[in-house]
Amino acid sequence: MGPTRPPGAECFVGGAGVIVASTGPKETGDMDDQGNGRRITTRFNGVKIFSATVAHDREALGDKVTAWIRNNPQKEVVETVVTQSSDEAFHCIAITLFFWQQGITEAAADR
């Protein structure tokens, strides 16, 4: 098992990752509004995940994301994914930001 990162830690991707999203006909769960059959490819070299399970923390999550974006102008957010999950006792929301930062090297990506 590899090294673990503390909650909220940034992860730089070795090289660059690619997000490929279909823009084809709508299917259940498909959030594409274009529906023109094209595929969108977005390169990223870092990921930042914000998550919360406690109601108070969930309410403040948007402010945390906004502050992080404001404090990191060198990181261009290229994709955002919001995930919600719950069971009988807990409700979790996660906001995942994929970003591109110029000048990231392989050594920095391994941190």
Structure overview:
This protein is an alpha+beta fold and 111 residues long. Mean pLDDT is 75; it is low at 1-6 and 22-34. 19% of the residues lie in helices and 47% in strands. The longest helix has 17 residues, at 55-71. It has helices spanning 55-71, 106-109; strands spanning 10-23, 38-52, 75-86, 91-101. A four-stranded antiparallel β-sheet has the order 1-2-4-3. The chain is built from two helices and four strands, in the order ββαββα. The chain has one domain.
Offer a concise description of the structure.
This protein has 111 residues and is α+β, with helices and mostly antiparallel strands. It has helices spanning 55-71, 106-109, and strands at residues 10-23, 38-52, 75-86, 91-101.
Q: Which series of helices and strands comes N to C?
A: EEHEEH
Q: Quaternary arrangement of the chains shown?
A: single chain
Please state the structural category: alpha+beta
Poorly predicted regions: 1-6, 22-34
Strand content: over 45%
Record the SSE blueprint.
Elements: E1 10-23, E2 38-52, H1 55-71, E3 75-86, E4 91-101, H2 106-109
